[in-house]
Amino acid sequence: MPFTASPLVGGDAYEMAQRLALEVDAELSALSDAGEQLACLRRHWDAIAGLGWMATMVAEDAGGAGGDLSDVAALACGAGRGGLPLPIATACVVAPALLAAAGARDMLAQVAEGAARICVILPDAAQDPGATRLSFDRTLEGGVVGVETPPDPTHLLLATKAGELLLLSVDSPGITRSLSMRIDGRLAADWHFVGVAVAQEQVLARGIADQADRARDLGALITCVEGVSAMGAIIEQTIAFLSDRVQFNAPLASYQALRHRVAEMYVEYENLRGLVAHALREAAATDALPWRDIALAKLRLGEAGRLVAHETIQMHGGMGLTEGVAAIRLARRVMMAEFEFGDRSFQADRLLAQVA
Amino acid sequence: MEVDYEAFRREVTEFAQTRCPPEIRAVVATYRKLSRKIWQPWQQILHAHGWGAPSWPKQFGGTGWDPQQRHIFDEVMAENDCPPQYHHGLRHIGPVIIEFGTPEQQARFLPGILSGEDWWCQGYSEPGAGSDLASLRTAARREGDEYIVDGQKTWTSHAHESDWMYTLVRTSKEAKKQQGITMLLIPLNSPGITIRPIRTIDGWHHVNEVFLDNVRVPVANRIGEEGKGWTYGKFLLERERLGGANVAPALKNLERTRELVAQELAGETHRAKRAALELRLLLAEAELRGALALGKEAVAAVMEGRPLGLLPSVLKLSTSVTHQHVAEVAMDAVGERLAPRFRRIDGSGPNAEAPGIEWVQNYMYMRVRTIYGGSSEVQKNVIAKQLFGS
Questions:
Q1: Which of A8, A111, B123, B282 would be B167's cystine partner, CB 3.0–4.6 Å?
Q2: What residue stretches are annotated with the Acyl-CoA oxidase/dehydrogenase middle domain (chain B) (predicted)?
């Protein structure tokens, strides 16, 4: 029996998420028109909201399911195998964590029922070189780019460097945006703010910089879970491809050079899987988030994920450069994950700051 | 009976910190070469405490610990710079004698291993049989109550300070080369044995060539049946599969290399180089933390009687390379000033070598990690076979 990856967190939710992700992938890969793709994403966003994904971590008294991190991890595991192009970590973990930290119960309820589609801007969001830095002093000025967003966002949840948490309607005067598709087929928005007036009641909280860091780390952990899942699926699909494809009168799977490369992919995958499983266990066992474990895992995701992504492209040959191959679409998901919730430099800097 | 593992860890820690002599720990901490001179007194201390054989059953003088306890023991020892116990007797031939030896053999050999009085080495590899061990050609022919052994072993670690060599020899030529192999226990003071050191790239003396020229070995020194040696040899290697689960020595090594980098490259002049090396160490640490988590999974699997699957191969592959990466960082920190001073030629005595030269030796030595104990290439073959299903 060839290799089949076992999920970090299995169960019904995992199975359901996987089925859904594969359906969406099949549907999306048949579309080439951006408008149709957007509509498809929106439809599936509504579907997962209807299934209660975004309510998973919201407390029961705020209208949620009162689940824990492993419930979201099960969803992320399943979604990761199909590269579901929706912002799962942000929607299921980061936004709820920020809103809970601010005690914003009404908004949490709206998130839980899917009425609010929130784009979260974290303090370290990317900016174009030379652009006006994002600043907030009664009005909001500046811009951020490439921020992952749900389809048709209704709100912006913005955590400032100073530790404020702002909730703005996307239609507020002075806000403009432009949408893009990321390398993994998810949506991203550039946001520009010119003299955006922020009322007192739109400042949900102050002094929550630590909670914002925590929310980002939770997001990083879920991204790692998705990444591990995607890598497992990539290895399975690479093995299947090598076993089927015949060149020089023999299946590619018979060539030792290629077999060894797959073994290397597997070792990297297993090592990361162990680390992420450990971080998940620690996160469940302690109140304090194991940020160091998460940072190390995210660092490794950058290294191991890229190796697995590059190797599957190489071993698929010319096919590896096409969007038509599922393993290659997953590889792009893994490549994008590097830049979510702190890339390798970011994680290395904070870990090294602790060593020094 | 339920074991309190935390209490056990505390007990072992206290023992390690109070009973392992500082001079022995200093040797481990500075990467000086371990030899019988260091190991033997440590084994005596452990034995006197009843901890001479952590992996043996109680009736043979072992501790009867479960895999989790053994793992904790190994981990704590490494964390406290206690030498890992000399393995050839305790972990290799001892368990084989327990499993396949006669009562006479058990009575003759096990006590000496426990007390550290008898020192063992392994006669497996030959010039023509390395990773492909079954190709071995050292031959034994039966003459009455004796075998006459002729041939050559190589890479024989510690033969120069050992009393005995457990040896795989060919007693017949069969169609399948794994058959016709027999395991003999050979005293190294037997007439006809010549031991020559091999000069290895690290400058340490650990391996040797062992020449066997008409060496007479009593049949009573044969383990099990004639021709079944491969089974016993494999049993021994199988038992070692959890060895890679102990990542503690590698983490200790990493910590020490971090200190080296901070001291060696202190100050503004070296800022960029220091940052580059620190980053490499961090990447190594991330990998080791992954291996550490997998090691825990492996121990848990053994505790619950589940198969280990590919975990040992994965651990071996990844930790061996990470060990090497860490050693490379140390080499990059000190290489410019120490690599040129590898061997002093105008001085002698214990202080003749440049202080810190062990970092250079250790870097050289670490190259063996991906070669011994099943080379990386062999491990990848094993993994691929399983992944592809053929």
A1: B123
A2: 121-215
* Nearest Cβ partner for B314 among A260, A270, A303: A270
Which residues of chain A make contact with B267, given a CB cutoff of 8 A? none
Q: Is B318 on the interface with A (CB under 8 A)?
A: yes
Contact yes or no for A271 and B290 at CB 8 A = yes
H helix or E strand, kind and range, residue A246: strand A246-247
Q: What angle do CA B242, B243, B244 make, to 5 degrees?
A: 95
Q: What is the pLDDT of residues B303-318, one digit of tens each?
A: 998 988 999 999 999 9
Tokens of A121: 């801007």
Q: Does B255 touch chain A (CB under 8 A)?
A: no
> What is the pLDDT at residue A250?
96
For CATH 2.40.110.10, the residue range(s) in chain A are 118-205
Give B252's strand partners. none
pLDDT at B351 over 70: no
Q: What class, spelled out in words, does domain B120-227 have in CATH?
A: mainly beta
CB contact under 8 Å between B388 and A352, yes or no, is: no
Give B316→chain A minimum CA distance, Å.
10
Nearest to B287 among A271, A278, A351 (CB): A271
| Average of per-residue pLDDT across A7-35 | 96
Q: For A300, name the nearest residue in chain B, comparing CA atoms only.
A: B286
Residue pair B198/B156 in contact by the 8 Å Cβ criterion: no
- For residue A266, give the nearest of B283, B285, B383 by CB distance: B383
Report yes or no for ipTM above 0.90.
no
pTM metric for this prediction: 0.91
How does pLDDT run across B252-283, given as a tens digit for each residue? 999 999 999 999 999 999 999 999 999 999 99
- B209 Cβ contact partners less than 8 Å away, ≥ 6 residues apart: B152, B153, B154, B156, B195, B196, B198
Which homologous superfamily does the CATH classification assign to the domain defined by B247-388? Butyryl-CoA Dehydrogenase, subunit A, domain 3 (1.20.140.10)
Catalytic residues of B, which ones? 240
- Compute the nearest-CA separation of A216 from chain B (Å): 19
Residue B218, phi then psi, degrees to nearest 5 = -60, 145
User: CA B388, CA B217: separation in Å to the nearest integer?
Assistant: 45
- Topology of domain A118-205, CATH: Butyryl-CoA Dehydrogenase, subunit A; domain 2 (2.40.110)
Tell me the per-residue pLDDT of A246-266, one tens digit each, with 9 for 90 and over: 999 999 999 999 999 999 999
Chain B interface mutation, best of A267, A299, A346, highest count of B Cβ atoms under 10 Å: A267
Cα three-residue angle B67-B71-B74, rounded to 5 degrees: 140
Candidates 1.10.150.120, 3.40.50.10800, 1.20.140.10, 2.60.200.20; correct CATH number of A209-355? 1.20.140.10
B165-218: pLDDT as tens digits: 999 999 999 889 899 999 999 999 999 999 999 999 998 998 999 999 999 999
Minimal-distance CA residue of chain A relative to B381: A260
